[in-house]
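Blinded run. Sample ID left blank on purpose so nobody reads anything into the name before looking at the predicted structure. Input follows.
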Amino acid sequence: MTIFQIISALFALFMMYVVTIHGKKKNLSKPEVWAWNSVWIGFIVIALFPHLLLGVTGLLNFARVFDLLIVVAFMILSVVVFMSYFTVKTLQKKLEEAIRNEAIATGKKNAHGKK
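Blinded prediction complete.
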């Protein structure tokens, strides 16, 4: 076992701890806690037993398991960034609409109060 594998497993255990804390604070629902812990358990398994992916690596014509993991990581990161971007845009539009409606309501109230 290499130092990289040990660090990776410790990182995943730490992330499982973080997920558990957020679950107890009710920032994450139980299915979300379960899903994230499953991801981190999978991460530990892959970190400690990378040879399990040799078949997939050969099937997809990657030279090394690490190359496969890097490509998959970039794909996942791209999806997360894409989803985060659209979530922020949606929230931005909702916030602008709420502020606009509040300003209009306040303006109407002030206009009626001055008469």
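Unblinding after everyone has recorded impressions. The mean pLDDT is 93.
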